Amino acid sequence: MYLKIAFLSIMIFVLQHVIRIIYWMGYHLHYYQHYPGSCYQVEGIEFGSWDIHTLLDGTTFITSGVCMSLLSQSFHAHYKNTNAVGSVYLMSLNQTIPTVTRLEIISQSEDFKVETFRPHGISVWPDYLSGQHLIYVVNHPLKEANRVEKFRFDPAQQSLYHLKTYTSSKLRLVYDVQALGEDSFYATNILYEQKVRFFMVLELFSLMPWSSVVLYREDIGFKEVLTGLTSVTGIVMSKCGNFIYVVMSLSCEIRVYSHQKDDSLILQQSYPLFTHPDNAVIDPVSGDLFIGSHPIAYQFLNHIDNPGRHKAASQVLHVRLMEGNITTVTELLYDDGDLISGSTAAVVYSKKLLVGSAFDKLVICDVSVPI
Q: Helix %, strand %, coil % for the chain, to 5?
């Protein structure tokens, strides 16, 4: 009798989880395309523009050419066949027609090799006086541990000088980074497992709360500041520095944390987004958030399995803030994948919407709607 009850309970639990995953995949969803104005694809970036960081003067840094061990053999074959390379691009959104420049990367360190650079999340600690900003970038060198790279940007030479590599057992499958100063940052771990793809996928689809946010400071080293989260992707700091926004993709929400003086984080607000957010970018002027999202999950999963064969819908959310808290969310753009497939990050500057993608193009739209 007790065995039957136990078996039935397990089956009910498995069934409800399977139904939850099917619903989460979004097979039932349909959206209608809309844009804030005329849009076009930016020439010069062919294989992704995953993350974006825009400064107050319109200077924008963009990562391209990400590749992770979690991804399938068909993806790795596509990556190789397209001759994709890891790069960081520069753009000025003050230009009438912004163009991109691929930054030369200079390194004399044995810890960093340009040929194995696979950049993902990016964050900038600006120095407006000299223009030599500090750039922190998540790196996924294949068959090596995930890490965070630190560069100094030379505006005269249009180059990045590699300064330091940060590695730790606490940096697992790293997704994004948020700079806090000269030698400090937060980094997000989307998964705990980092080596075996089968266990990565199992952890992902079982929705295990094993994601975390890690703090690095030179005086204390690496320290976990948030644990027990589900599929943490993006992390970004408010314009004033008093709040940290943590994006959780599979649980379809964003959380607001109060940023303490010792860099600990206190939960202030959880806000449902009803879509799968990827990365959040701070509007350097207004302080609002813009989020690149995946509204139909199964399309994005097919897209990351084989980007050359499958398209994925793209969505941009405008998140308005008041005293750090989220007040309203507006869908600024939706595209079915023809213009841009698999949107991951976005920002508005000078009435231009810049939208990045996982493995597709970079797109600019005029913003002719109220914002």
A: 15, 45, 40
pLDDT tens-digit readout, 217-266: 999 999 999 999 999 999 999 999 999 999 999 999 999 999 999 999 99
On whether the pTM is more than 0.85, the answer is: yes
Euclidean distance between CA atoms 60 and 347, whole angstroms: 10
Spell out a b/e string for 142-159, using b for 16 or more CB atoms within 10 Å of the CB, else e: eeeebbbbbbbbbeeeee
User: Distance (Å, rounded) from C-alpha 94 to C-alpha 242?
Assistant: 28
Please check whether residue 204 is in contact with residue 193, taking contact to mean a CB–CB distance below 8 angstroms: no
The residues assigned a catalytic role are 120
Residue type at 116 in one-letter notation: T
Give the separation between CA 298 and CA 220, rounded to whole angstroms.
41
- Residue 357 neighbours by CB under 8 Å, 6+ apart: 48, 49, 50, 292, 314, 340, 341, 342, 343, 344, 363
